[in-house]
Amino acid sequence: MINIISRLESIRTKKYVIYLFFISLFIRLSYGLIYFSIFKSSNFDDDWTYVDYAHKFLEQGIFIPDISQIKELTLSLPPAFPSIIAFNFLIFGENYLPLIIINAILSAFVSVLIFYIARFLFNNKVAIMASLWSLIYVYFIRWVPFLLKENWLQFVFPLVVLILFYISKEKKYFPKIILLSFIFAFLIHLDERYFVYYPVIALGLIYLDSNNIKAGLKKASIFILLVFVFMIPWLVRNYIVFKKPVIISERTAVFTDKIFGYETKNTAPMEIQISNETLDSIRRGQNIYDITLQNELNRGIKYGLIPYRYSPLKKAFVDFKEFWRPFRFSPMFVSEGFRSEEPWSLKHNMSIMLTYGILLPFFFIGLFFVIKEKNKYAMFIIFIMLIHTLIHTTVLLSQYRYRIPIDAFVIIFSFYGIFKLFNKKVTPVENK
């Protein structure tokens, strides 16, 4: 293995990256096209909500002024991904294959991003090992034949981090900071949860700047201003439609309504509200048709589970396990205590354990060495992973696929742990 890595190191970077991209693309495109040719859209779930929103774009135009005919769940979505689907429908008709091809291309580029981020943080050996592993990483491949924003998030979020790193080392940064601001604005219009990283990226521009704090403050100020400018069109649209300030999507209203003094019907994003009386009826085996997730509740009860409302501490503990889990052999309720998850199949468990679970011990070893060495760029990524975990385990709904946008970092840190364990020589960090 060491000899193979050494030989790959001798290949010029651009040549290696081209090989990496096309091998990754072949794997993802093959899986996506074969899967879709067999199952078509029969396994779509959340996908249909994005398709429904895309139809509204086509019916009403890009700003969808009339929301009276839009389903509540659809209304809560941010606009970027449904607009991408709508644009595809406009060009190709209601044909999902072009979107699957785009998914495969985006996922292939993730392998390239992993190479460049790992090389920036550590060295070529880690970059090669991590990027090669990403070729077969199941979570990067699995969602290719689906219309889910995870295919975009797994690419866009690491891209934001990589551009931030490059900007921190440059004096002539203006073109790149425009690009960073635009891509970050696109990211938060893909998923409003990433708005929490608005101040984090700004602080990163200050903390990571290789020149001085003054230069970092200037970069951060430009970033904050430009992102806000890019947000203005949808902010204006939301104000016209909702008659109040709404950032990105209606899900954020639970926070902004309190700031601006509006009454809100929501208590937390994605939270399920079920009365104790309804819970008692469900436990007695009575069918209740006027609540969300009735099927999930009954599915959990089928396994002998008893639904009950989790305390905030219990929710955080259960959701932490759900967020980072490498396998699932038994059924359980997650989040508030009302969403049931069934056991994974043997094939599912094995594929995840062999490509993700096997990395976790080395991931923690990598974390240890990063903290010990005080690599500020890697420490910043640890901070991002911590935030990503906390917002999904304490505030929002937690699902393991919501972790995928930070899995590139998990792979990189894991192979840094492997590198530190088995490499005898002391190799300097190549964060250039």
Brief account:
The chain is mainly alpha-helical. The chain has helices at 2-10, 13-39, 47-60, 72-75, 80-92, 97-121, 124-135, 138-141, 150-168, 174-190, 197-207, 213-242, 253-260, 276-283, 294-302, 312-324, 346-355, 360-373, 376-395, 407-422; strands spanning 332-334, 339-341.
Question: Keywords for this structure?
Answer:
globular; 2 strands; 432 residues; mainly alpha; 66% helix; single chain; two-stranded antiparallel sheet; 20 helices
Q: What is the typical, i.e. mean, pLDDT? A: 88
Largest sheet: 2 strands, antiparallel
Low-confidence stretches: none
Strand line-up across the major sheet: 1-2
State the secondary-structure class: mainly alpha
Outline the structure in words.
With 432 residues, the protein is mainly α. It has one domain (2-65, 72-274, 309-422). The protein has 20 helices and two strands. The chain has helices at residues 2-10, 13-39, 47-60, 72-75, 80-92, 97-121, 124-135, 138-141, 150-168, 174-190, 197-207, 213-242, 253-260, 276-283, 294-302, 312-324, 346-355, 360-373, 376-395, 407-422, and strands at 332-334, 339-341. The chain is globular. It starts with a helix and ends in a 10-residue tail after the last helix.
